[in-house]
Specification:
CATH class of the largest domain in chain A: Alpha Beta
Strand order of the largest sheet of chain A: 3-2-1-4-7-10-11
CATH class of the largest domain in chain B: Alpha Beta
Number of strands of chain B: 12
Strand content of chain B: 5-15%
Strand order of the largest sheet of chain B: 3-2-1-4-7-11-12
CATH superfamily of the largest domain in chain A: Translation initiation factor eif-2b, domain 2
CATH topology of the largest domain in chain A: Rossmann fold
CATH topology of the largest domain in chain B: Rossmann fold
CATH architecture of the largest domain in chain B: 3-Layer(aba) Sandwich
Number of domains of chain A: 2
Distance between the termini of chain A: 32 Å
Helix content of chain B: 40-55%
Oligomer: heterodimer
Order of helices and strands of chain B: HHHHHHEHEHEHEEEHEEHEEEEH
CATH architecture of the largest domain in chain A: 3-Layer(aba) Sandwich
Shape of chain B: globular
Largest sheet of chain B: 7 strands, mixed
Structural class of chain B: alpha/beta
Number of strands of chain A: 11
Largest sheet of chain A: 7 strands, mixed
Chain lengths: 323, 327
């Protein structure tokens, strides 16, 4: 059977790849949305055909951003439930409807997760706090926003976040809420660290040992915070926790194109110059004071518990335990 | 400040507009940071004072002193919080400010000699630092540098001349992207260089043998005032137990600072960080742009000077020696 990828799915895949769709939550929701589109467009009448259509979409999506943990977690959430339902729902039409419900459930939960993190995280912020942020993260913004709306007078330092300047989005978003924001270059974090009460960042992934994978520069900021004894918080939905790391896999650090750092034309004329452009870095758990999830605050050492609760079946499966 | 009235008075005194324009040009180039490195700035200051010493139309010593004071003020005020600028100017003026009972002609040559000596000192220091620094670099070392530094380039040039092959990691050094210029120059030396965003420093630190950086100024306690970001790189080098070497001539040692951390840090233009039009639209968004930061002496392994390699704690001793030599 030849299967053509729906156009909208291709658009989503492209959007994720080019980072038009960014932020782990949005990526996960977009991926699940792409699964929904695939279901809606599906003419499959047999379970196996239906599955291979979905698997094809899933494969295309998974290849877009190999390091985005939320992406496989979102896809896994849907696919896993679909596999489990197979025994009870034999009719493919019903199965399609069920898949759509599951997908909607994920999207709804994930949207609520950010809001819930905002509520939980805001309790950790005090009136008069000076916050430092790096990059852009919906969960991080939500924490600051919620605290601000509770009447806490907060001030924010926002790094510009080279090479793609996502910090400008954070500055703009928080500024529009009325929060005083000061933009600084990434290199200036240590210069201002003594004025900062709390650092809050989002997460791209959290490993089983509590290590944080986030926008490059995060680990440097965490170190500077640690040195200055400034609290370091991570705002992370539970779909950011990486079950693969429980079975020993390393989180792959994606490297992006050199043109983000220097124009290709200029680079070409310098034969001895190469560019390395890692998107993320790894912050060791010992520099992290708290991870704020929609299920509550946990120390980084609690990552394992979250993984076991949410993805225990996956870990068991990967390790070859009977289900 | 150099006011319009002052300027008119200077013009009248000098009776030589061309000379004033020349000096003004130097001041302006320092102000807009076209001349920006610590050495380049010092050389430019020395140049301005030599122009004055040679072409001033002053008829009395008092007039000449006043003119010299005016020019030094003008230079310092081009970037009032630049430590390197203050250092350079006080380096030259130290020699003529105290001199009593000299003739006008003597005073002219005092200033000229003092300025020329600083120029020579910078030149000689760079050569000597290159020799000493190069000894600390082993064949196949991986060196990490941040910001643009002619002193670091001098060391690397020497390393190449000695036939050692090393590899460089260079940060782009926001906000001015001085690191790009640095990478191009290293490229021209024929050394392989990897350009990275400043934030990526910690990702690569474990593969680095030496951090080698220049300095804007060095405080008496050995704290290093250098391109913003140096302090955080030194912190993570310390964390990874990678050596931090600072290359700086002793003329960058700043006697003004009894406690290093009190050095005033100059802020650069906001436009380097954001589009000012966009910024104007966002009333709650501000910009801070410190040009330098202070690396505490405990994160510095050695300072390579023309007088030898010293621990940061040795800065005080060298400064004391310099003052003693002068007296």
């Amino acid at each position: 059977m030849t299967y053509v990828l729906p156009e909208k799915v291709e658009e989503i895949a492209k959007g994720i790849k080019t980072m038009e769709i960014r932020g782990a939550g949005k990526i996960a929701r977009a991926a699940v949305e792409a699964l929904k589109i695939t279901v809606e467009a599906s003419r499959a009448e047999k379970f196996d055909d239906f599955m291979s259509e979905l698997s094809f979409t899933a494969k295309i999506l998974l290849e877009t951003r190999p390091t985005a943990v939320s992406l496989p977690n979102g896809i896994r959430y849907v696919m896993r439930r679909l596999m489990q339902a197979r025994d009870t729902i034999t009719n493919v039409t019903d199965l399609k409807a069920y898949t759509l419900r599951v997908a909607d459930q994920f999207i709804e939960d994930s949207e609520k997760a950010v809001q819930r993190i905002g509520e939980i995280g805001a309790k950790r912020l005090k009136d008069g706090d000076v916050i430092l942020t790096h990059c852009h993260s919906s969960a991080m913004v939500e924490v600051i926003k919620t605290a601000w709306e509770q009447g806490k007078k907060i001030q924010v330092y926002s790094t510009e976040t080279r090479p793609r300047f996502q910090g400008r989005i954070t500055a703009k978003t928080l500024g529009q809420l009325g929060i005083p924001v000061t933009m600084i270059v990434d290199s200036a974090v240590r210069y201002f660290m003594n004025e900062v009460d709390k650092v809050i960042v989002g997460a791209d992934a959290i490993a089983a040992n509590g290590a944080l994978v986030n926008k490059v520069g995060t680990s440097m900021i965490a170190l500077a915070a640690h040195e200055a004894r400034t609290l370091f918080f991570v705002a992370a939905e539970t779909y950011k926790f990486s079950p693969e790391t429980m079975v020993g896999e390393l989180v792959v650090i994606e490297e992006r194109t050199s043109s983000e750092v220097i124009s290709s034309k200029q680079l070409k004329s310098m034969k001895n110059v190469t560019v390395r452009n890692p998107s993320f870095d790894v912050t060791p758990a010992e520099y992290i004071d708290l991870i704020i999830t929609e299920r509550g605050v946990i120390p980084p050492q609690g990552a394992m518990a979250i993984l076991q609760d949410l993805y225990g079946w996956f870990i068991g499966e990967k390790m070859g335990f009977p289900r | 400040m150099f006011t319009v009235t002052n300027r008119d008075r200077l013009c009248a005194k000098f009776g030589e507009k061309a000379m004033i324009q020349e000096i003004e040009k130097i001041v302006h180039r320092i102000k807009i940071k076209e001349i920006a490195g610590a050495d380049e700035t010092a050389l430019a200051c020395a140049g301005a004072l030599i122009i004055l010493a040679r072409h001033s139309k002053a008829k009395t010593l008092e007039e000449f002193r006043w003119e010299a004071k005016e020019v030094t003020n003008r230079l310092v005020n081009a970037r009032p919080s630049s430590s390197s600028l203050r250092n350079a100017v006080s380096h030259i003026s130290r020699e003529f400010e105290g001199s009593e009972g000299v003739e006008l002609a003597e005073m002219r040559s005092l200033i000229e000699n003092s300025a020329s000596r600083l120029m020579e000192k910078i030149d000689d220091a760079k050569k000597r630092i290159a020799e000493i620094g190069s000894k600390r670099i082993r064949n196949s070392d991986v060196i990490f540098t941040h910001g643009f530094s002619t002193t670091v380039l001098a060391i690397l040039k020497r390393v190449v001349e000695e036939g050692k092959s090393v590899q460089l990691f260079v940060t782009e050094a926001r906000p001015g992207f001085g690191g790009r210029e640095m990478a191009w120059r290293i490229n021209d030396l024929g050394l392989p260089v990897t350009l990275i965003a400043d934030s990526a420093a910690r990702v690569f630190i474990n593969g680095i043998d030496n951090i080698l950086i220049g300095a804007e100024a060095i405080a008496v306690n050995g704290a290093v005032i250098s391109k913003v970001g140096t302090a955080v790189i030194a912190t993570l080098a310390h964390e990874a137990r990678v050596r931090v070497l600072v290359a700086a001539g002793t003329y960058k040692f700043s006697p003004e600072t009894v406690v290093g951390e009190l050095v005033e840090i100059e802020e650069g233009d906001q436009a380097q960080i954001v589009d000012l039009k966009l910024l104007a639209k966002r009333e709650n968004v501000h910009v801070r742009n410190p040009m330098y930061d202070v690396t505490p002496p405990q994160y510095v392994d050695a300072i390579i000077t023309e007088r030898g390699m010293i621990p940061p704690q040795g800065v005080y001793l060298i400064l004391r020696q310099i003052v003693e030599d002068q007296n």
